[in-house]
Amino acid sequence: MGIYVYICFLSALSILLGFFTHKISDKVQSTIAITAAAMVGSLLLLLLGSLGWFSLDSVAKEVMEQVDFKSFLLNGILGFLLFAGSLGIKLPVLKDQKWEITIFALFSTLSSTFFIGAMIYAISHLIGLPVDFIYCVLFGALISPTDPIAVLAIIKNLRAPKRLSMQVEGESLFNDGVGLVIFITVFAVAFGGQEATFSGIMGLFLHEAIGGILFGFVLGFIAHILISNTDDGSMEILLTLTIPTAGFMFANNILHVSGALAMVVSGIMIGNWTRHSGFSEQSQRYLDHFWEMIDHFLNSLLFFLIGFALLLIDFNIYGTVLMIAAIPICLVARYASLWIPFKVLQQFRTYNPYTLKIMTWGGLRGGLALAMALSIPAKTAFVNGIDVKDLILVMTYSVVMFSILVQGSTVEPAIRKSKVVDPNREEYLQPTNNQH
């Protein structure tokens, strides 16, 4: 069977799984329930396979390898998910939080990358596994950015105070693009033969980041002109599809700039500018509903695949130690990288007292980190006979699952408390049509 057949069956399974988990308990976020159920299913398949009762574990693993999680997300549905998420970003609130989002997306992501890299480097040498520093930094680069897909799927539904919600959502959208650029830059040094010079690294970084932002403006402007010149409601909605399809591919494969940042910028433009001055009244009503359905469908499939990605991981004793160590290291790095700029920003404005706690605990990792880990070439770098990719993948999976299942399911009490003590209670974020 071909890849299309697999995607069709997996999509149906993810939707049915979401339906049944919602029927069992509507108090648990659907993305968390789908991920947990899929992970339990993959564990069950592995257990039955090890007992020799069925060979479904090998079949399921073959399906996951055929789907190619990395290409499916990084070169496929990521554009749709980022564009859909950025449509709901309100520009006035974004402007109010521009300095916080910029600093958190740049400084916090970069500092967290090197903090995690240094800690993993130290621990790996401590246990007798001398992993090169560049590979440790590579892991730091892929795990430091919070995943906007996971964050938007869970945090938005909890109706956090407006400013706090925008800090979490805006940062996750932008540090996703920044994180991808950092990862690509470090990856080029580790595997692409790029010399580790300041000018070379900065040139690559700026080309990806600035190029992606500029292309996003161009893409959004062209889409705005086209949408403004038709009164056909269906055509107006269809024109938005050209952005995460051809636009995303053109950025990544032709211009070689950050398609992720381009999607965020163009989505904000369409959601704030074109929404009010380009769409007909009918399309304004259907824009959010249309993209909500796409977002919900792709999220269900993505989190289903995250749970079953367990089948792609090879465990070993060294990997298990690093897997256990990676979770607290990533949490400490997240807190420290936010605490420093947060203390500086506190001198200029008042924040909700739960801001730092929620941004740390609510800074979820998800499919994006897994996709980047899976993009690392196998059997290229070894340490003590162990493939570096396997080490990075097992650490990534442990952090992602802890993030979604534990952090995602326990962040709600802190958000509820933040609404009680919020200094801007009249500015509570109201649900939008783009929420799940």
From TrEMBL:
Predominant subcellular localization, coarse grouping: membrane
Chain ranges of the Cation/H+ exchanger transmembrane domain: 43-416
GO cellular component annotations of the record: plasma membrane
PANTHER family: NA(+)_H(+) ANTIPORTER NHAS2, SODIUM/HYDROGEN EXCHANGER
Membrane topology: Multi-pass membrane protein
Location(s), subcellular: Cell membrane
UniProt-recorded name of the protein: Sodium/proton antiporter (CPA1 family)
The family this protein is said to belong to: Belongs to the monovalent cation:proton antiporter 1 (CPA1) transporter (TC 2.A.36) family.
Superkingdom classification of source: Bacteria
Key words of the record: Antiport, Cell membrane, Ion transport, Membrane, Sodium, Sodium transport, Transmembrane, Transmembrane helix, Transport
Segments passing through the bilayer: 6-25, 32-52, 72-89, 101-127, 133-153, 173-192, 204-227, 257-275, 296-315, 321-342, 354-376, 391-411
GO molecular function, one term: potassium:proton antiporter activity
InterPro entries associated with the record: Cation/H_exchanger_CPA1 (IPR018422), Cation/H_exchanger_TM (IPR006153)
Biological-process GO terms, alphabetical: regulation of intracellular pH; sodium ion import across plasma membrane
